[in-house]
Amino acid sequence: MKYQVIRSGESRSFPDHHPLVANATSSGEVVVITGSMAGSQLGKLADPGSKLAILVELAGECLGSHTGEQHGEEGSNVLGFARFRLGQSAPSDLVELVRQPRTPETAIAAARQVLEAAGLQVAVCNDFAGRIIDRLVRPYYNAALTRLDEGLASAADLDTTLKLGLGYPEGPIALLERTGLAHHHDVTLALFDACGDPAYAPARRARVAKQRGG
Amino acid sequence: MATAIKTVGVAGSGTMGAGIAIVAARAGLKTIVYDTRPEALATARKQTEAFFAKSVERKKLSQEQVAGMLGKLSGTTDIGAMAACDIVIEAVFEDLKVKHALLAQLGKVCPPTTLFASNTSTLSITEIAAGSGRDDRFVGMHFCLPAQLMKLVEMSPGLKTSEAAFQTAWDFCKAMGQIPVKTKDSPGFILNYFLIPFNNDAIRLVEAGVATPADIDRAVKSGLGYPMGPLELLDLVGLDTHLLVAEALYASTHEPRAAVPALVKRMIAAGHLGRKTGKGFYTYQGNAMFGG
After folding, report:
1. Which domain holds residue A95?
2. Do B179 and A94 touch (CB under 8 A)?
3. B191 contacts chain A (CB < 8 A)
4. CA B53, CA B66: separation in Å to the nearest integer?
5. Is B192 considered catalytic here?
6. Do A147 and B193 touch (CB under 8 A)?
7. Coil, strand or helix: which one is A3?
8. Same domain membership, residue A190 and residue A107
9. Measuring CA to CA, which of A44, A114, B10, B220 is 20 to 30 A from A137?
10. pLDDT in tens, B172-187
11. pTM
């Protein structure tokens, strides 16, 4: 399927060379808008209704902030997306593809086809703050940092337990220190603001890292 | 790694007890499994022999090695046999009264030098030790399921455990080829403390309609590199088992993330326990899984 990529600002999902960008054509049935200002391009597209799908890169915001919402009946050929990435580590192969209640299945199928053809894995989710992974994993990271403070175990033993016991590739403490505690702070604080759930409140170690500038 | 432990007692011949006995016998230690139920001992023996046969088939052990290991492993319904043990690891039902009753009996037959250990995953080591009559010589040793395959052991001293007793148990654990980690005597230790709320959070995503189980699992596996998604794992463990462990953790911590989501009780009421009933977050037919 032919697709067009429009760049609008720096992209967290595609900071470097990637087949999705390299294999794009000058026009197509699908439009992928990447970058920090992707949402602002939506209103500038000529004849957007003629496209099978229009994919807008999201940061932490909901898709509805770009499309508008209508009492739970919203949905069009516009989908949101973000490639999951922890801090400044390389982006993973996972793309969280954001739909709305009335998004046509044809639009989802077209978006999935384009993304998977570029070697990416697609998980479809509804338009919730934090999408799937950040919503799921940030309370776990905060709990790990808090329990380290409380002396449940050493950082090494916490990490070893979760790696050997559950097969995780990396323990939470080493992972957060590698990818950036300050970045975790920013993501989890945004979720705390959005959800009001104390589980998202940044753990002390994340706040300290943020105060120290990363 | 040297160990002062030469003879190991395992009380309880269920899945965990049988697995721990395999670990000890495989390390060349004389191992005695005690259970009041002869049929449970017989079943454990058969499972142990089958496990070792597989090890030979996979060329991990020779016939001679297995014969030696099985020769060191015995079962008994006579609690008096525990008198010969340098350490007794209890792996009986997760009920404080049941454990205290067992420990009171063991306390009468074992010499004062015998260390006691508990494989509990949910109860407090200090509380179990309080009924042992030797709380200074009592250690938490939580093996992971299946014990004969998983290297990790969460080791916890109770409030009264002596440093010497903990060190002896630690050295023994390493001598068996296991990897011990030290954790406080705290609800769920490390593994369950983090896993149960994480799994509850994944269930809450399903409840809230954030994504389907298959999309959540796919995201976790490809985004975080976990070997299994949380909802696949819950289907494997069984929703009824998850409920028991989560309720025990919540009762100890009262942390909101440990509280079992309402969806779990609805699924249990509907018989959707996971793989064992053919339906949980996914639908199963034979070895096929649907919904992924």
Report:
1. 3-126
2. no
3. yes
4. 8
5. yes
6. yes
7. strand
8. no
9. A114
10. 999 999 999 999 999 9
11. 0.94
